[in-house]
Amino acid sequence: MSGAARADRAVVHAGADEREWIAAAAASIARALGEALAAPGEVRLLLSGGTTPAPVYRALAAQSLDWSRVIVGLVDERDVEPEADGSNARLVRESLLRGQAADARFEPLRAAGQPLEQAVAKANARWPLAPVAVCVLGMGEDGHTASLFPGAANLAAVLASDEPYASIDARGCAVAGAFAHRISLTPAGMAQSAHRLLLIRGADKRAVFERALKEGEAGELPVRVALDLPGEPLHVYWCP
Ligand SMILES: O=C1O[C@H](COP(=O)(O)O)[C@@H](O)[C@H](O)[C@H]1O
Fold first, then answer.
1. Beta bridge partners of 201
2. What is the ipTM of this complex?
3. What SS3 class is residue 137?
4. What is the pLDDT of residues 174-232, one digit of tens each?
5. Which numbered atom of ligand 1 lies nearest the CA of 205?
6. In the chain, what are the domains?
7. Which of 48, 72, 139, 175 to mutate to test the pocket of ligand 1 (most atoms within 8 A of CB)?
8. Nearest alpha carbon to residue 132 among 171, 74, 203, 77
9. 48 in ligand 1 pocket by Cβ < 6 Å?
10. What residues does 12 pair with on adjacent strands?
11. What number of helices (H) and strands (E) belong to the chain?
12. Which residues contact 202 (CB under 8 A, 6 or more apart)?
C-alpha cells in the first residue's frame, strides 16, 4: 500500500495526558461493544497484553454494559502457564475481569500445561463463536503488533495464513525477550473484527507508528497489517 493510502487508514486520537488517554480509549471500546450488544446474542472482545493496556482495561471494567453477553478473548499469548508473570491471560484477569466486567466470559488462549500447537488448533477450531466487535491491539518499539514480530522465522507464512491464529517462532527477536514462542492473531483473524483499536504511549512509539504509515512491507513493521486491512480504519489512542 502507498504511504498516502496508508495514512488514510488511521484515525489518531491524541490525549494530552494519561487520564485523557484512558478515558477516551475505554469509552471507545465500550461504545463499540454497546453497539454490537444492541443485536441479540453474544459478542466477542479481543484484547492484547504487554505493559501498556492495563489502565484502560481497569477503566473499561467500570463501564455499564451487558457483560454477561461479552466473550473476552486474547489477541496473543506467550507460551507460559496462565498464572505466570508475562501471561496475557493473567493481565486480563487482573485488570478487566472485575467490577461490572466480572460477568464476562473469559476464553484464554492457552490452558495450564497445554502444548502451544494444541492451543493454536483449539483456538482455530472454536473460531468464531460470536461476531468480533472490537480487537484491541498494542505495538512494540520494533513495530510488532499482536505477536507478529519483525524477523520471526515464520512471519511470512503467518502473515499469509487464512487461519485466525498461528504459532510464532520469535527466537532471535530481541523485543520478544524470554517469550520466544507464542500464539498470535493473524491478519486474517484481525480482518474479522468490526472495530480495531491500537493503544500506544510515548514519543518513541509514536515515531515508530509514523514510520509505519509510510510505504513499505508489512514484514518490516508488522503493525502495518492493521492499517492495510479493509473495513473501518484503525483507531489509534496515544498519549505522551
Ligand atoms: O509482547 C507483546 O507486545 C505487544 C506490545 O506490548 P507493550 O508492552 O509494548 O505494550 C502487546 O500488544 C502484545 O499483546 C504482547 O504480547
1. 239
2. 0.99
3. strand
4. 999 999 999 999 999 999 999 999 999 999 999 999 999 999 999 999 999 999 999 99
5. 9
6. 3-239 (3.40.50.1360)
7. 48
8. 74
9. yes
10. 236
11. 9, 10
12. 240
